[in-house]
Amino acid sequence: MSKRIFDLIFASAGLIVLAPVFAAIALWIKFDSPGPVFFRQVRVGQHGKPFRIHKFRTMDHDPSPGQPSALTIGADPRITPSGRFLRKHKLDELAQLIDVVQGAMSLVGPRPEVPKYVAYYPDALREIVLSVKPGITDEASLRFKDESDILGRSPTPERAYLEEILPVKLEYYARYARSHSLAGDLAIIIRTLRELFP
User: Fold this and answer.
1) According to the 3-state scheme, what is the secondary structure of 135-164?
2) What is d(CA 172, CA 138) in angstroms, rounded to the nearest whole number?
3) What's the rounded Cα separation, in Å, for the pair 96 and 158?
4) Rounded Cα distance, 178 and 26, in Å
5) Residues 50 and 43: beta-carbon distance below 8 Å
6) Please, what is the end-to-end C-alpha distance for the chain in angstroms?
7) 3-state SS track over 18-44
8) Taken in order 156, 50, 92, 68, is the CA torsion positive or negative?
């Protein structure tokens, strides 16, 4: 079975099974604060191709032009009450099943970064990491599941991300790009589900 067929089968099944959960989340977001259900942001995909990722919106909607901060740190005051719950349990990421079905993402793979941080990828790693589709989950996501809290404890969050977290993530990403397998993907999916639904 190819990785694309694997992704299509499991992502499509996930969207069908989770449809009531998606509807409940969408209603909660709409009742909780004004704004759209989904947060869309440009990320860098396979071979450097940009795409607009889907996430359930967890922050106050800002209709003004310009990009919000790429990092969400600790108890960010922009996070809505529903957003705190969705972020804590990683439920905001479930919307990316749509991106998997559309072909921009995979179930498992390096997390897609914003262009600002991809510019910091070392040349030796950029081509390797971007050779595969970005994913909803991976080893780095499990390793840094509390990344927001880690950054919230740093006096210089962006510097901490660039110097302490991103280099470690890139090692995981490159390792995955070089030696991924369907069996390995399935193992990561199972570990991720155990984290979401212990």
Assistant:
1) EEECHHHHHCCCHHHHHHCCCCHHHHHHHH
2) 8
3) 25
4) 37
5) yes
6) 29
7) CHHHHHHHHHHHHHHCCCCCEEEEEEE
8) positive
Q: Across residues 10-28, what is the average pLDDT?
A: 96
Question: What percent of the chain is predicted at pLDDT more than 70?
Answer: 93
Q: What local confidence, expressed as pLDDT, does residue 73 receive? A: 65
Q: What is the three-class DSSP state of 12?
A: helix
Q: Which two tokens stand for residue 130?
A: 């971007």
Query: How far from chain centre, in Å, is Cα 13?
Result: 19
Which is nearest to 172 in space by CA: 143, 196, 146? 143
The DSSP-derived string for 33-89 is SSS-SEEEEEEE-GGG-EEEEEEE--B----SSSPPPS---SS-TTB-HHHHHHHHT
Q: For 111-120, write each residue's pLDDT tens digit.
A: 999 999 999 9
Question: Residue written as tokens 């570990």?
Answer: 191
Q: Whole-model pTM above 0.70?
A: yes
| Residue 196 token pair | 């979401």
pLDDT tens-digit profile of 49-71? Answer: 999 999 999 998 775 555 555 66
